[in-house]
Write a structure and sequence with these properties.
Structural class: mainly alpha
CATH topology: Arp2/3 complex 21 kDa subunit ARPC3
CATH class: Mainly Alpha
Distance between the termini: 20 Å
CATH architecture: Orthogonal Bundle
Number of strands: 2
Largest sheet: 2 strands, antiparallel
Helix content: over 70%
Length: about 260
């Protein structure tokens, strides 16, 4: 029996690797400045954790996402993606485990997530201001061809960062309410927190990775709003799929949410 369960888990892991790769590749929108792209793969990262738990889910998330980078020609991102997506799944699963049924852990996780995001946001804002004042030529690109356009572009990016920082909690709450009304499916706070922390880790990690690859942490900040959009879409799609599957016998296959 134990051997059969292990075999089933390996089969499901392989299936989620393939699904994650396909979901990442099917809609790949290039991001200016960093030679990266946004996609729907995060939804399958979240779903992998629900179905497999964080241990096997990390394998599916990391390997599946890395394969998409390989097939799409973003080989320079492959090792970063492998680690970032695997850790993303681990964080999500552990937060769900620790916060389920524990109000104290839920409050602590909520405060830590909010503080980390605010510190990250204001740090990035200061980096952009410093680079635009001391090394503006490094920020020029096809999108910003000369210094005269740089000021308005920087202001636009900073406004986007502020809007994103304030709007994400509202978006997640709205999505949860809509799914509850339409699908009669309640998303527990622990799962919202788990996906949120995982999404914020993804944004932070890709910001650092892009800064190291291209040698400029101000330029890598320009991809943050798009990566946050990717996270929100991943949250929405994963929640809708989970809500739909909750009405079928397949929900019994889920490691989380049985």
């Amino acid at each position: 029996m134990a051997e059969q369960n292990k075999t089933n888990k390996l089969i499901l892991t392989g299936l989620m690797i393939a699904i994650t790769a396909v979901a990442t590749m099917v809609i790949a929108i290039p991001i200016p400045f960093t030679s990266g792209y946004i996609h729907l793969g995060d939804s399958m990262v979240f779903l992998s954790v629900f179905i497999l738990g964080w241990r096997y889910g990390a394998i599916a998330a990391g390997v599946g996402s890395a394969l998409a980078d390989l097939f799409l020609g973003y080989v320079h991102w492959l090792p970063w993606t492998l680690c970032i997506k695997a850790i993303m799944a681990i964080l999500m699963g552990i937060i769900i485990e620790k916060c389920t049924g524990s109000r104290r852990n839920t409050i602590i996780a909520s405060l830590v997530t909010a503080i980390l995001w605010l510190v990250f946001h204001f740090s990035v804002k200061r980096i952009i201001e410093y680079e635009s004042a001391n090394n503006p030529a490094a920020l020029l690109s096809e999108e910003v061809p000369d210094l005269s356009a740089l000021g308005s572009f920087i202001n636009s990016v900073q406004s986007q960062l502020m809007i994103v920082a304030l709007a994400i909690p509202a978006f997640l709450i709205i999505i949860s309410i809509i799914i509850r009304k339409i699908e009669h499916f309640v998303i527990p706070i622990s799962e919202i927190l788990g996906m949120t922390l995982a999404g914020l880790w993804m944004v932070f990690a890709y910001y650092i990775a892009a800064g190291l690859i291209y040698g400029n942490f101000a330029v890598s900040a320009f991809s943050i709003p798009m990566n946050m959009l990717q996270f929100i879409m991943g949250f929405l799609v994963a929640s809708l799929i989970t809500a739909a599957l909750s009405k079928t016998p397949l929900i019994k296959r889920f490691k989380i949410r049985k």
